[in-house]
Design brief:
Layout: H1 17-33, H2 39-54, E1 59-63, H3 65-76, H4 78-82, E2 89-93, H5 111-121, E3 128-132, H6 139-150, E4 154-159, H7 165-169, E5 172-175, H8 190-209, H9 226-240, H10 244-253, H11 258-265, H12 270-279, H13 284-294
Parallel strand pairs: 1-2, 1-3, 3-4, 4-5
Length: 295
Amino acid sequence: MTEHADPRYRALDTWDSLTALRAIWESQIAAVASIGPALPALAEVVEAALPRLRAGGRLVYAGAGTSIRIAVQDGTELGPTFNWPEERTQYLIAGGPAALSLGIEGAEDDAEDARAQVAAAGIGPQDLVIGLAASGRTPFTIAALQAARSAGALTVAISCNPGARLLEVAEHAIATETGAEVVAGSTRMKAGTAQKVVLNMISTQIMVRLGHVHEGLMVDMRPQNIKLRGRARDMVVRIADVSPEAAAAALEHCGWRVKPAVLVALGAAPEQAEAALAEAGGILREAITVFRGAE
């Protein structure tokens, strides 16, 4: 379906810009709406991934072209946002890293390279491997998921064509039926939008469930600039109900890490804060309960 030409857009090149942009906008809305039926499957993916990631597994993305470029964008944002270790994010890229900015001819058809990349990465039972292909028939991505599954990894396929081969080779299949594009075959549009939203949803909810979010706040973010240090201070102010000055002092004591700083602002010594977080498995809500129970 993603390769079909939609007769509604046959005269696209004759339309004025406002009319054409309205059609593109409406198609983007439809792309997001297509995710709705997949919500139960997405929840299953998150819950299945948690035990492996809690045990130290990696989040691995596999794909070609637009799909892997979208995946890299998702993965690279997890470090600064949630303090997810970069070494626990891996990419299996058709054509290698150069393909992120260049079109590498024939790379998406190289199944042998996919298998070689899975082997080189040492993919194993603790890892979550997400393969993306709008068409669902990309040989590289299919081979990557097959090899990863054979190695014991948890595999997830994301495609915009229900019934696609890619969806058959993974343990979890996510189909978003985005249909024909405004520009036939240009899957960077509707299909790309759906893939981006699906990845945002999976990775964000995984991070929430792993304890990197408290009361809707990114309490494990890395405050690497003035703006983010101000955000960190405001989070401590809000959660601990202290003054900005007290919040800043607590953050200074804790190397600008929000979670222990909240506990310090509540009256804990830095070592008590670390111990409470360790006992709570890094979950701030539980660590607060642990600290208050020890008072």
